[in-house]
Amino acid sequence: MSLGQHLRELRKRIVFALIGLVAGMVIAAFLTDPIIALLTHPIAVVAESRGNDLAALNFNSITAGFDLRLRIAFAVGIILSAPVWIWQVWAFIMPGLTRKETQYTIGFMLAAIPLFFGGCAVGWLIMPHIIELMSGLVPEQGALFLQYDYYYDFVFKLLLVVGIAFVLPVFLVALNLSGIVSGRAIFKGWRIAVLVAAVFAAVATPAADITSMLLLAGILIVLYIAAASVSVLFDWRKARRVRLDLAGPEA
C-alpha cells in the first residue's frame, strides 16, 4: 500500500472507532444515574457514620451536573466500545504482521483485556475503603464537601492505575518473547518486584487499610510470578527448538 492508501485506511479505522465510541456514549448516557449512585455510595456511608448530612458531593456551578454526566458517559462509552476500537487498531496493523506475530498479538490481547478489567474491578473494591478511611480523618467540627470533578478524577485514576498495573506482567512476557529479557532474569528480580508491589499497594491504598494493601500487593506478586513462569516456559521451548535444529533430521 502507498502512503496515501495507508492514510485513507487509517482515516477509515478512526471513523469506525469514533462511531463505536459515540454509540457507547449514547448507551452510557442512560446509565449515568445508577453509576452516580454507585460512585457516591461511599460518601453516603461516611455521612451516616458521622451522624449528619455534612458529607456530600459538591456541585459548584450550573453546568456541573451535566459535566459530570458527560465525563461518565465518555469513560463508560470507551469501555462499552472497546471491542470496536480494539478491533479497528488490530485490523489496521494486522496486514503488516507475520503469522507468528499475529498469534502472539492475539494472545497478548486475550490476556491483557481481562487483566485490565480485573484490575479495574479490584480498584473498585478497594475504592470505598480508601474514601471511608481518609474521610475519617476529617474533624467532627468540619464538613466534608467533595468537589465533583476532583472526586471523579480520583476514582477514575485509581481504577486506571490499578488496571494498568495488572497488565504489566503481559509486557514482561512480551519483552521475553522479543529476546530482551530471559525468564530466569525475571525470576531473579523477584525481590525488586515484591518491593515495587508493596510500595505501589501502600500508595494506592490508605496506610490504615492493611487488608486492601496486602490483597493488592499479593495479586500483583502472583501475576509477576505467573509472567516469570510463562517466560521460563517460552525460553525452554526456544532452547529445545535450537537443540533439535542442531541435531538435524536424524534426531
From TrEMBL:
This protein's UniProt keywords: Cell membrane, Membrane, Protein transport, Translocation, Transmembrane, Transmembrane helix, Transport
GO biological process: intracellular protein transmembrane transport; protein transport by the Tat complex
Cell compartment(s), UniProt: Cell membrane; Membrane
GO cellular component: TAT protein transport complex
Main location class: membrane
Residue stretches spanning the membrane: 14-32, 72-93, 105-127, 154-177, 189-208, 214-234
InterPro entries named in the record: TatC
The UniProt record lists the keyword Transmembrane helix: yes
Family annotation (Pfam families): TatC
A GO MF label: proton motive force dependent protein transmembrane transporter activity
Cited function: Part of the twin-arginine translocation (Tat) system that transports large folded proteins containing a characteristic twin-arginine motif in their signal peptide across membranes. Together with TatB, TatC is part of a receptor directly interacting with Tat signal peptides.
Description of how the protein assembles with itself and partners: The Tat system comprises two distinct complexes: a TatABC complex, containing multiple copies of TatA, TatB and TatC subunits, and a separate TatA complex, containing only TatA subunits. Substrates initially bind to the TatABC complex, which probably triggers association of the separate TatA complex to form the active translocon.
Similarity comment text for this entry: Belongs to the TatC family.
HAMAP family associated with the record: TatC
Name of the molecule in the record: Sec-independent protein translocase protein TatC
Upper taxonomic lineage: Bacteria, Bacillati, Actinomycetota, Actinomycetes, Micrococcales
Gene coding for it: tatC
